[in-house]
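User: I'm curious whether this sequence folds into something compact or stays loose and floppy. Could you predict its structure so I can see for myself?
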Amino acid sequence: MEENRKDIPKEETEMENSDPVKEETETSAAGSEEEGGCDPDSCSGETQEAEQAEAEEAETENTVTEESSEAEEEASAEKEKTEKKGFFGRNKKKDKRDVQIEELTDRVKRQMAEFDNFRKRTEKEKAAMFEVGARSVLEKILPVVDNFERGLAAADENPDDPYVEGMQKIYKQLMGVLDGLDVKPIEAKGMAFDPNLHNAVMHVDDDSYGENIVAEELQKGYTYRGAVLRHSMVKVAN
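Assistant: Here's the prediction. I'll summarize afterward.
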């Protein structure tokens, strides 16, 4: 009995000294080792392989995406080229009706331009013909004017004669008509000799006039619209 009593405290002491938390930890670690069946080195290797596989899959996906985008770009570029070729092909192969319309349009434009040039040329020719005809008529009228002036100069002795008065009125009317047609007399006497306006037929030595001064007008000259219709016939002092 005493021996049993001695043994009992010993067992209780061992139970008291044992740590239940420690035992549970050791038990779970042992169980995990048995269930996993790998050590830390082998587990880290498997983790690296998994990560590498995931990286390869992502890289493959990126490559596929890039290839698909490049294929789409190439397809769009080929489509644009095809459209351009078709557009230029239509220009090269025009419809016969379009070609005929263009030819007729060009022909009409050319005819309109030719007609416009013809109209302008005709107007210039008409104006030139009018000028030539007017000059021809005026040149024929000028001798009549000269005769009027000679007759009036001779009639100065009887200025009160009704016949002379009638001649003066007719002369004024005629000169008014010529002035309306832009026919102007050329000033000559006392002016410097101008070969563009005067026709010198005589020279006279006269100190009262300067050199190359018109001393006398033998026949009156006229201009028509600024151009000489008839030169003045003059006597020039040396």
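Summary: Confidence is low (pLDDT under 50) at residues 1-38. The first helix runs from residue 2 to 17.
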